[in-house]
Amino acid sequence: MAARKSSKPAYFFPDPIDNDLLVGHTNTLNNFMAAWNARDTHPIHPVWMLCGPRGIGKATLAYKIAKMVYGNVGDFFIIDLAHNLDPNGNPYPEGKSISVKTVTTVISRMQLSAMSGGWRVIIIDSVDELTLQASNALLKMLEEPPARTLFLLVTHQLANVLPTIRSRARVEKMHPLTLPELRQLCSHFMADAEISDEMLRLANGSFGKIANIKACGGDEIYSTLIDALENPHSTTSDLMNIAKQITADTALYGILLDAIAHFGLAEIYPAATRGLNEIEKLHLEPEIGIFKIINDIKQCLQTPTAI
Question: Could you tell me if 160 and 47 lie in one domain?
Fold first, then answer.
């Protein structure tokens, strides 16, 4: 079974700092604006934690707030993997966690800027990616936040954040995007793309998931996967070829779980999730791990349902 030829255009999805389009989350934005506008009579909470699933626009909202506080981009401090530093202070953007050196360097720069006056904003995207040492360094700063300083903490899983950090933040729980909101973003960033209702539902309210899939041709690979699973004549070679396509980008791993949901095979979902986690954590051969999950789905579909 040959893979479908791709004719997809190249889509551009701006980084959150460059994205001026915020869809949804009006409640969270209104909560901040009400607190900000009343800051002269009621001091604003210095630490805001924007919590919710990946890809729903938390970082976009954080940068939107920063731009409103300052009126321009560049006058605030950013802690993320793109600005990560190794122990010697050299750029280390390929790291998988944000180092303590990154946090302490930003804290030092921020303290030196205190003489300039005005408000300072520190965006951390995301707190989930901080090492334990980095989290503890941040905690020391949050215990006595500097005056006229606003911390915007992006987090994907509240359970991954130190309780001592959570206790010092105003937690704003942001919700997955609705189907109309997802459709609005798709129309803006991928005006010529065909986005099925099924893909919107499978995105679980995350435009980031849709963007990742479209950027690496995942929608076509997903269609090929479904076709192969439904085709009783697909071979082991066909399934291995699809596994190789999926391993080309870790952003595609999620389409396996989408396929499980598509066929209603909830009984193998836990095992598939464990299998995907083991591939990344134990550095297993990805092709073999992905193939096993695909083959498990195929076997379930071929097993007659007991009456």
Answer: yes
What end-to-end distance do the CA atoms of the chain give, in Å? Answer: 33
Q: Can you give the pTM of this predicted structure?
A: 0.83
- pLDDT at residue 216, as a whole number: 80
Instruction: Compute φ and ψ for 89, nearest 5 degrees.
Output: 85, 10
| Number of domains within the chain | 2
Count the Cβ atoms, other than its own, within 10 Å of residue 193. Answer: 15
Rounded Cα gap, residues 80 and 183, in angstroms: 29
- What is the residue whose two structure tokens read 């991954």? 160
Residues 30 and 142 in one domain: yes
**In contact, 146 and 111? CB cutoff 8 Å:** yes
Phi, psi (deg, nearest 5) at residue 118: 75, 180
106 phi-psi bin (left φ>0, alpha ψ -120 to 50, beta other) = alpha
Is 292 within 8 Å of 301 (Cβ atoms)?
no
Asked if omega into 126 is within 30° of 0 (cis), the reply is yes
Q: Are residues 232 and 149 in the same domain?
A: no
The confidence score (pLDDT) of residue 2 equals 39
In the three-class reduction of DSSP (H, G, I as helix; E, B as strand; rest coil), residue 94 is classed as coil
Residue where one domain finishes, among candidates 173, 204, 238:
173
Which residues of the chain carry a pLDDT beneath 50? 1-8, 73-74, 306-307
Say if CB 134 and CB 141 are below 8 A apart.
no
Q: What is the pLDDT of residue 13?
A: 84
Domain range enclosing 297:
216-302
Judge whether 260 and 269 are in contact, CB under 8 Å. Answer: yes
